[in-house]
Design brief:
The protein is mainly beta and 1062 residues long.
Length: 1062
């Protein structure tokens, strides 16, 4: 009869329906700057901008909240992009010589980006026997001809082909070969030399029948396509880089490989023209690098703009990434910290206007986008409402704060505005304003905090689709660093020529790696926060609306407690500045706690109501009363064999070697003993033996197969690392009295619970009486498997997590049930377990590693609201595993609800960077500069909903071919999208996508509140010390599993055709 007792029941239809109303997985939007951009385009009529990347992604941006994303089927580099003005269509050229036509179409009132057609050029040059013309070789440049919906394709062989854009088919009989052009060139210029590749094609704004052709050799030709003849020829002899045709057609500007540019008169003089009107090398006379691109923009004042990239003196500044802006006698050399990809100006393109009158200059760099206001004196930079470089300094940790009070939000925004005051002129506005954002205003404000390698913490508005920068906190000013003297010397050595001007905020170089931020925690009700760093520094800060000059109190806490036999071999502590220091408006430091040894902080939590901050390192954890500025507790967690914990981050090579050696020894020992080993001693071994002996057929239907889990050795390296800290008002000493407690979990599976005596604060004041806070060890739990403790949370009598500090006392949340028995949820890397309080007896558990074969990386509690009933919601436990899967469990029953594949298991940094919100959403890094946003909630979804007014008439039959959707597939940069069936050149559906209708619907996504902090979810991205042999095993996997994954991946890629993201 026992086997029927444990038999799993069938699925409950009502519960399954409720799950569909609560949970749904979506990857919704990518925040940040596109990784590895390679192409840029701008539609002056619709005011939208497109960016292409090396992974084949197409991203179109308009007003804040207006975003479209697509992905080419082949992960090839996007080399060029061209908008069909006003039509909502963009033509992309990839490095495999394929052309793709993308369209912004509307479904159900919302606009989406879809790939309509594609054209593949022949891969090898040859001769077309039918026409006698050279076949299409490598495409070097594309020009959209305004008349006739044509595109001119310049090739490496010097020929120009013409393409019908609506069908993406070559037009017969219109190809222009180099021989035809050479007939109009004087004999002495030919000299037996070829013209070289077509470097540039430019159209005339007022006469679309004319095309300006630039060849690599330096020859410029104004070709009349209607008359099939050359109207003007300019005999340049310097290798050509780019050409610009002034809007009236009277002036042609060419840039060259020797760092010079030339101005040619196109309306006077004889043809061919031998000498330009003006030829200058702006940064000569010494050898200069090539000017890669040049623009000429006319102004009514007569002071025209010449804007070019490159051209710097090769010997002195050849490594600089510059764009120069010249107007009359004013020259500014914009100095960037990353490579220039492309740039454009926002100016008038109406044919009836006589002058360009540029308003703004947008420069796409490899790591950021910079926009300058050309109508304001000084040409200031325009703050970007989106596309801000998240990785201006490398991201080391992140945290999310939900439901930010309006007062705190306004104060943070005000502090950010004082950091970068807006110009008085109203003309300095964001110029890319196309489309309309149809999404509703967010019901609550969300803050995303990112800690960086340079010691800064950046605050981002994560309430909607556009991730907007709000405020930047810098902690470097509190410490003495070695970089200040070097900076002063560098500034003194800077010459006045060229007139460099530093532009942009991308700065990958850290002043001191010890400044790196490892953990952050924010109390949204008191505007207090904690920032912990790499050198053991813990800063307590408070938001102030006015600047101040004050000294910061410094306290040290020795976590080793004079333990003998340990010598710190890592970096030194940072030296704080002494005396009063000036602090701008914003978060200002109130106290600095220095952990000794100065190891990186691995866990931190703040309880503003009690005035306490807890922090942990690889050596132990401490508790500090920042109101009285006095330490409360210091506990060493080191094992006698934890010598690696004393070596610091500079000894990782030895650590990895030792870790690998120990792992292989354990594997060999386990295999050698095998089943011959006698099962004696621990309960774990007895349980494993029972599982091995049960081999009846009834086990298949009685319970899932459980894997044998080897217990971890107590002397594993870095076993003393503190993984999580938690404050709770609960029952620890007895069942009749509750009070403040602090919980700490370590890498060796140890949990320490301390009862705290916190004196009541004086009414109306922040200072508490002179009596100090006391901490007494109440419980100590050792998990049997010694698996690292990832998170701890206390549940009240109703099984709900306790509210945050001040939530209950200020009636901002339902008061916890203090009548029923409390329980503590302890999440380790291998299992979840609920213990009753205060007895700490096991109540419920779920062995994730034994059942699923994976380990827990991130854990969070989230509230999932129903889409069917506004008043119904459930609090569940969500976890992310080392395989990139998301599992959701009920609380406190720990029953599995749903699970989804979220992140590729090979993306170790993405898994390590994941952070959850309280309402069913989450973020993880898909590249150093991009967060992928996802949702596990069926109700709480943040995704682009926008529209765009276009004037291109749709073909209903073509749209119907593309309306079939298939599931989201992983993009090259980690982002999935909805795949749509594109058409081939003849307009028929692509046969590769015939099975798109039979695929399963897209999977869902994750979003909970982290339980390793009382106020926010955080994660450390600097995983140097967290990388283990198990992580390497997860990445490698078995050969059979790898082959299976490759087969599945090839099948999915065979179905992928195009992308649509709402």
């Amino acid at each position: 009869m026992m086997k029927f007792r444990f038999r799993r029941q069938g699925a409950d239809p009502q519960r399954e329906k409720l799950k569909q109303e609560l949970f749904a997985f979506h990857k919704t939007v990518e925040h940040g700057f596109p990784n590895q951009p390679s192409a840029l385009a701008f539609d002056p009529e619709l005011r939208i901008m497109a960016i292409g990347t090396r992974s084949g992604a197409v991203k179109i941006y308009g007003a804040p909240g207006v975003e479209f994303t697509g992905l080419h089927r082949d992960a090839a580099t996007v080399t060029q992009m061209h908008f069909l003005p006003g039509q909502g269509r963009v033509l992309t050229l990839l490095d495999d010589d394929s052309l793709h036509l993308w369209e912004i179409v509307h479904h159900d009132g919302c606009a989406h980006l879809e790939e309509a057609l594609h054209f593949q050029a022949p891969s090898r040059p040859g001769f077309d026997g039918a026409s006698g013309l050279p076949s299409l070789a490598h495409i070097t440049v594309v020009l959209l001809v305004a008349v006739g919906d044509m595109a001119a394709l310049g090739t490496e062989g010097g020929s120009i082909f013409f393409l019908d854009v609506p069908t993406l088919t070559l037009l017969e009989g219109q190809t222009l070969g180099p021989d035809e052009v050479l007939r109009s060139v004087p004999d002495d210029y030919r000299c037996g030399k070829a013209l070289g590749p077509v470097e540039s094609l430019q159209g005339h704004l007022r006469d679309p029948t004319k095309i300006l052709i630039g060849y690599s050799r330096g020859l410029l030709v104004i070709w009349n396509q209607a008359a099939r003849c050359a109207e003007r020829i300019f005999l340049g002899n310097q290798q050509l880089e780019s050409v610009c045709w002034e809007r009236s057609g009277h002036t042609v500007v060419s840039s060259h490989s020797d760092g010079s540019y030339a101005i040619w008169a196109a309306d006077t003089g004889d043809s061919p023209t031998v000498q330009p009107t003006v030829a200058t090398t702006p940064y000569g006379p010494f050898p200069c690098k090539a000017i890669n691109k040049v623009l000429w923009r006319s102004c009514a004042s007569g002071e025209h703009f010449v804007i070019f990239s490159g051209g710097m003196p090769r010997a002195s500044y050849g490594d600089r990434h510059c764009v120069s802006v010249l107007q009359a006698e004013t020259l500014v050399t914009l100095d960037f910290t990353s490579r220039v990809i492309d740039f454009f100006t926002v100016h008038s393109t109406r044919p009836e206007d006589e002058f360009d009158e540029p308003q703004a200059l947008a420069v796409l760099l490899e790591e950021e986008l910079v926009v300058l206001d050309l109508q304001t004196p000084g040409w200031p930079a325009v703050p970007a409402p989106y596309l801000a470089p998240l990785h201006s300094s490398a991201i080391t940790c992140s945290a999310h704060v939900a439901n930010v009070p309006a007062k705190l939000w306004a104060r943070i925004v005000s502090a950010g505005e004082q950091q970068s005051p807006q110009p008085a002129s109203g003309a300095s506005s964001w110029p890319i304003t196309g489309g309309r954002n149809l999404a509703q205003e967010p019901s609550q404000r969300g803050l995303l905090l990112t800690g960086h390698e340079d010691g800064t913490v950046r605050f981002w508005d994560a309430s909607g689709v556009a991730l907007r920068p709000l405020y930047k906190l810098s902690t470097a000013g509190l410490f003495q660093t070695d970089c200040e003297h070097a900076d002063s010397l560098a500034q003194a050595a800077e010459d006045d020529w060229p007139p460099f001007r530093k532009v942009g905020c991308f700065d990958p170089y850290s002043d001191d790696p010890r400044l790196g931020v490892q953990k952050v925690a924010l109390c949204k009700y008191t505007a207090q926060m904690v920032v912990a760093g790499t050198a053991g520094q813990v800063l307590v800060l408070e938001l102030s609306d006015t600047p101040a000059e004050q000294a910061v109190g410094v306290a040290s806490l020795d976590l080793l407690q004079d333990r003998e036999g340990f010598t710190w071999k890592g970096h030194e502590r940072l030296s704080p500045r002494l005396g009063p220091l000036p602090w701008p408006a914003g978060f200002q430091p109130r106290a600095l706690i220095q952990c000794l040894p100065p190891a990186a902080v691995t866990a931190v939590t703040l309880h503003a109501e009690w005035g306490l901050v807890a922090f942990g390192t690889s050596h132990g954890f401490g508790l500090f009363d920042y109101l009285r500025r006095s330490p409360v507790l210091a506990r060493c967690t080191l094992h006698p064999s934890d010598s690696l914990a004393m070596e610091g981050p500079l000894s990782r090579v030895k650590s990895l070697k030792k870790s690998l050696r120990q792992s292989f020894r354990r594997i060999r020992k386990s295999r050698a003993s095998g089943k011959k080993r006698m099962v004696t001693g621990s309960k774990l071994q007895e349980a494993n033996a029972q599982l091995a002996e049960q081999a009846g057929p009834q086990d298949v239907e009685v319970t899932p197969v459980q894997r044998r889990i080897e217990p971890r050795s107590a002397d594993d390296s870095l076993s003393g690392v503190v993984r999580c800290l938690y404050f709770a008002d609960t029952f620890l000493r007895d069942a009749a009295h509750h009070g403040p407690t602090m919980w700490a979990g370590t890498n060796s599976g140890s949990v320490f619970a301390y009862a705290l005596e916190v004196p009541a604060a004086v009414a109306g004041g922040e200072k508490r009486p002179e009596r100090a806070v006391e901490a007494v060890l109440g419980k100590e739990v050792q998990l049997m498997h010694r698996a690292p403790v990832v998170a701890i949370a206390v549940l009240d009598g109703r099984g709900r997590p306790l509210p945050e500090p001040y939530e209950a006392s200020r009636d901002l949340a339902q008061a916890p049930d203090m009548q029923g028995g409390h329980a503590v949820l302890i999440a380790s890397e291998e299992q979840f377990k609920v213990f009753t309080l205060p007895k700490v007896s096991a109540k419920t558990k779920f062995k994730l590693t034994a059942h699923e074969g994976c380990r827990v990386r991130k854990v969070a509690l989230a509230t999932f609201a129903s889409v069917a009933c506004e008043d119904y919601a459930e609090t569940c436990l969500a976890c992310l595993t080392n395989l990139g899967d998301v599992h959701v469990f009920s609380v406190p029953g720990l029953r599995p609800q749903v699970h989804y594949a979220c992140i590729r298991k090979e993306d170790i940094s993405g898994i390590a960077s994941c952070v959850f919100t309280r309402h069913g959403q989450g973020f993880y890094l898909i590249s150093p500069s991009e967060f992928e946003r996802f949702s596990l909630s069926a109700r709480n979804i943040t995704e682009p909903l926008c529209s765009l007014d276009v004037r291109w008439p749709r073909d209903a039959t073509r749209v119907s071919h593309r309306s079939r959707e298939s599931p989201k597939l992983s993009q090259a940069n980690g982002t999935p999208g909805i795949i749509l069936a594109p058409q081939s050149r003849d307009g028929s559906p692509d046969p590769i996508c015939k099975e798109a209708d039979t695929l399963e619907p897209p999977e869902a996504m994750l979003s909970p509140m982290s339980i390793d902090s009382a106020t926010s979810a955080d994660t450390t991205l600097d995983t140097t010390g967290d990388m283990t042999v198990e992580d390497v095993k997860d990445f490698l996997g078995s050969s059979e599993e790898s082959e299976k994954n490759l087969r599945n991946l090839s099948e999915e890629e065979a179905r992928a055709c195009a992308i649509l993201i709402k």
